[in-house]
Amino acid sequence: MGIIKTENLTRTFKQGETIIYGANDINFTIGKGDFVAITGKSGSGKTTFLNLIGGIDKPNSGKVIINGVDIYSINNDELAKVRRRHIGYVFQNFNLIPILTAKENIIMPLLLDSKKCDEEHLKGITDVLEINDRLNHLPSELSGGQKQRVAIARALINQPEIILADEPTGNLDKKSADELMLLFQKINELGNTIVMVTHDENYAVACKRRMTISDGKIVFDSEQHDI
Question: Is residue 39 included in any domain, yes or no?
Fold first, then answer.
């Protein structure tokens, strides 16, 4: 069994009298240690798909199974624990808390889980991400690339097996975006499973596996070719 599995995953939205599919009966499995790029046109369902497997949105029907647990069959408290302990989420717009320093933003998931910060683990992450000299700065004092590195550190602080990233290079210049992709590849080599939404073809083909979504359906999977 893969680390992430969906069964008949469906999510619809109503726009007037029209039903729009964010996810349309999706079945797929992602193995431990995989690095998957999710591609598709704007509005195709990429972010909805990521939010469903990350426990942020809820499906109309179907299952999302993380490490053998159907995350939508458990109560909200248990779901929150799964999200904090097993899933790190990197948002396109960083989602940093403006009144907290970079370090305070990074360790926030630990505080929510009533855990103490392992300073050695924190230093290991911030060393790799090269942000040790920015930890006492507020988000407003950081560049876009530095904010994204802080967001990645926050996603990694609880040592989750799964990293979900929604257009992580979307707000970065090319140099910062290229550096970020190299960081993701290093993180993946350490054993983390990564699922990344991207519009950039160059970054998509650099991943181990590529999936394309259209109208809420997976229409291409590099492991299965056209579906």
Answer: yes
